[in-house]
């Protein structure tokens, strides 16, 4: 059975990069080396792995990656910190919270 990983990197400019791979170590090495000079992370080095999820179904991993990519910075932070209440809060009434709470 092949494994697939959904992951979130923290970039040097405090943005998040979300990706999916079947070899997390290889992919992290690629990101950290800036091997694709025109990629999102290459100009935001160094990067740090903040979160990952192991999946056994590639379709599931792709679905989760796309879902997370659509999330706000705050919601990704809640996932990384396992702050389930904030994850729920930021899933509801996003515009209300987006206008009241600004990221650090």
- Assess the beta-strand content as a share of residues: 15-25%
Total discrete domains: 2
Helical content class = 40-55%
The coarse overall form would be globular
Which SSEs are present, and which pair or pack?
Elements: E1 4-10, E2 16-21, H1 24-33, E3 48-55, H2 58-69, H3 73-80, H4 84-91, H5 94-100
Antiparallel strand pairs: 1-2, 1-3
Helix pairs in contact: 3-4
Describe this structure in words.
Residues 2-78 form the GIY-YIG domain. Belongs to the UPF0213 family. The chain is globular and about 40 Å long. The chain is an alpha+beta fold and 104 residues long. The protein has helices at residues 24-33, 58-69, 73-80, 84-91, 94-100; strands at 4-10, 16-21, 48-55. The chain is built from 5 helices and 3 strands; from the N terminus they run E-E-H-E-H-H-H-H.
Short overview:
This protein has 5 helices and 3 strands. With 104 residues, the chain is an alpha+beta fold. Residues 2-78 form the GIY-YIG domain.
